[in-house]
Structure formats: structure tokens, C-alpha cells
TrEMBL record:
Organism field: Variovorax paradoxus
Lineage per the UniProt record: Bacteria, Pseudomonadati, Pseudomonadota, Betaproteobacteria, Burkholderiales
Protein name: Aerobic cobaltochelatase subunit CobS
Chain's gene name: cobS1
E.C. number: 6.6.1.2
UniProt xrefs under Pfam families: AAA_5, CobS_N
Swiss-Prot/TrEMBL keywords: Ligase
KW Glycosyltransferase (keyword) present: no
Length: 327
């Protein structure tokens, strides 16, 4: 296999054919699949606006951030575009434990011909920067501010990266690409859902060329995604069931927006619920296990009412269950 640093995009793909978007655009892609290329998820459904934004990142070296509520498919969207282009992709979770040294690199003791020597081991940023790699900063708004400054320079196109301890200046590889996902737009945890989200420096937000927004989708699209994920619900009966589930999810989102609920169902939760329906063959039980038990006690009656409205069936409380009943 060719070394990753020697790989180049060597063919053009039609965006229409690969992503089903009505456009004449062509996007560069690789013939060879390096180990860093994500697996193709054959049933992934692309959202045209977000896909085009991500494609602009790959085609025109734009810095693209995908922002939106949790579980809407932001991280997987970038990965699935990369998977279709055979573009090596590295996803880095910027949790509070990632340090400057993890990103930049550090001196480490290694064995060379039986002797211990100190050698600089480059971190994920310089490694990616010198290769045709799409680096994804996942949970960008969870990164610690001091850490984020490390990446300020590479946010600029052609932005060189200085390895200070090494006295080296790195030029980005022409096919290095940079993406990020975030739940907030850098203003902190305004709605109370994203504990740990940092306020971001706006000189940094400013350097992202494109900010795509991926929030909850129209019901039909969400139903199609859930059915694609859980094939046993792919028939007409399944569609009706999933439609009711998505309707419950929608009520929780409206309830959250109105301040009645402190939590809401993401598309990820709906998928999990559908998977649990497959296991338990019982939508009410699966609902309790996938969502209701994550809610505050005081809010459960309201959630039960949402269920009742969409399923025309009572949702028993857990304590009623433990006393022997099964529905
Ligand atoms: N369009 C889609 N087609 C198929 N599956 C999808 C789609 N969108 C989301 N999913 C599925 O939903 C789940 C959540 O997606 P993902 O982890 O990408 O969300 P996210 O937006 O990055 O969430 P978070 O903000 O919590 O990081 C995944 O299992 C993914 O496969
Ligand atoms: Mg994510």
C-alpha cells in the first residue's frame, strides 16, 4: 500500500451520482483506500445543504464547521462524505482532557539500536497537516480555550504551523482539510443542554469560512433515516410506527422550546428507540428504556402524555411496571 503522504486525489466524481444532489459539480477523490478512510455506511442519507457545504471544504479547501443540536448526524455526515471520496479522515474529540501537547507533540524516550534516546513525537495536528487528511475537530466547543489557540494558525488557508521546540515550520499538504462540529455557536451553554460547552474566541470562529447548520429535519426525512437504520421497520406498518415515534420526538422538541421540558429527543434517541423496539417488540417499554428514564421525575407525566397522544395508548409509570404488569 502506498504511504499515506504520497496519496493524491486522482479522479473526479460526479456529486449528482455519488450524493444524489442536483448539480453539475465534480469533486476530487482518491482511487486507493487508505486505512484512515472511514467505512461507508450504505444507508446514510445526505442532507443536500450540509453535504454541499462539506464538499466545498474538500473541493475548495474551505474550513467548514457543522453546528447543530445533538444527535443530528453532524460527525457522521463529514465521515460519510470522506468515505465516499476515499479521503483519509481523522476525527479528534476535543474533550476537556486534550492538551496542547497531544495536539502539537512532545519529546518521548524511544529505543534506537538498543539505546534510549529522546525523540520528538509529532502530535495529531502536525501529522495530519503534512498529509492528505481531513482532520475533524469534533465537539469543537468543548475544547479548552488555551488548547484552541494552537489551531488558530492552521485555520487560515495555507497557514503554516510552527513547531516551536523543533524550530521547524510546517507547510500544509495541498490536500490537508479541516472540519469541526459543535453543538453551540461558541456562545456557551445558553439553552442548558450543553454542559461543558465553552465560550469560543470570536477571532477563531471568524476563521471558519463556512458554518453549516444541521438541526432537526422534516418528519419525512427523519422517518426515512430511522427506517434505513432499522430495516425491520422498513415496511408500511413500520413506517406508521416510526411516524408516531417521530411525532413524539417532535412534541418533546416543542415542549423543550416552550420551557415545559428540560430535555428533548434527538434523532439519535429515536434511532435507539427503534432499535430497542426491535429487541423488546414493545414500543412503550422501549420508549421508557430509551428516553423516559432519562427524564426528570417531575417531567415524566408530560412525556407520558406525549406518548399517549401519538400512540393512543397509556404509558404506565415504571413503579406500575415493577408491580407485575407488563404494559
Ligand atoms: N442522515 C442520516 N442517515 C443515517 N443515519 C444517520 C443520519 N443522521 C444521523 N444518523 C445516525 O444518527 C446517529 C447520530 O449521529 P452523529 O453521531 O453523527 O450525531 P452528531 O450530530 O455528531 O451528535 P453530537 O452533537 O451528539 O455529537 C448516528 O448513529 C448516525 O448514524
Ligand atoms: Mg458528534
Amino acid at each position: 500500500m502506498t504511504d499515506i503522504a504520497d496519496l493524491r486525489p486522482d479522479r473526479m466524481l460526479s456529486v449528482r451520482e455519488v450524493f444524489g444532489i442536483d448539480t453539475e459539480l465534480q469533486v476530487p477523490a482518491f482511487s486507493e483506500r487508505d486505512d484512515h478512510v472511514p467505512e461507508v455506511d450504505a444507508v446514510y442519507r445526505f442532507n443536500p445543504d450540509v453535504t454541499l457545504a462539506i464538499l466545498a471544504g474538500f473541493m475548495r479547501d474551505r474550513r467548514v464547521m457543522v453546528q447543530g443540536l445533538h444527535g443530528t448526524g453532524k460527525s457522521t455526515h463529514i465521515e460519510q462524505v470522506a468515505a465516499r471520496l476515499n479521503w483519509p479522515c481523522v476525527r479528534l474529540n476535543l474533550d476537556g482532557h486534550i492538551s496542547r501537547l497531544d495536539l502539537v507533540g512532545k519529546d518521548a524516550v524511544v529505543l534506537r539500536e538498543g539505546k534510549q534516546v529522546t525523540e520528538f513525537q509529532e502530535g495529531i495536528v502536525p501529522w495530519s497537516l503534512q498529509r492528505p487528511v481531513a482532520l475533524v475537530f469534533d465537539e469543537y466547543d468543548a475544547g479548552r480555550p488555551d488548547v484552541m489557540f494552537v489551531i488558530q494558525r492552521i485555520l487560515e488557508q495555507g497557514g503554516k504551523f510552527t513547531l516551536m521546540d523543533q524550530n521547524r515550520v510546517l507547510r500544509p499538504h495541498p490536500f490537508f482539510r479541516l472540519f469541526a462540529t459543535a453543538n453551540t455557536v461558541g456562545l456557551g451553554n445558553l439553552n442548558g443542554l450543553y454542559h461543558g460547552a465553552q465560550r469560543l474566541n470570536h477571532a477563531q470562529i471568524d476563521r471558519w469560512n463556512i458554518v453549516a447548520s444541521l438541526n432537526y429535519l422534516p418528519a419525512d426525512e427523519e422517518i426515512a433515516i430511522v427506517q434505513a437504520r432499522v430495516p425491520s421497520l422498513a415496511d408500511e406498518a413500520g413506517r406508521q410506527l416510526v411516524a408516531s415515534m417521530v411525532a413524539v420526538a417532535d412534541l418533546t422538541r416543542k415542549g423543550f422550546a416552550a420551557g415545559d421540558l428540560s430535555t428533548l429527543m434527538s434523532p439519535r434517541t429515536v434511532i435507539t428507540w427503534a432499535e430497542n423496539v426491535e429487541i423488546f417488540k414493545n414500543p412503550a417499554l422501549a420508549f421508557r428504556l430509551s428516553f423516559v428514564n432519562k427524564c426528570d421525575d417531575a417531567e415524566r407525566p408530560l412525556v407520558a402524555e406525549y406518548f399517549q397522544r401519538c400512540f393512543d395508548q397509556e404509558l404506565k409509570e415504571s413503579h406500575q411496571l415493577s408491580s407485575g404488569s407488563h404494559e
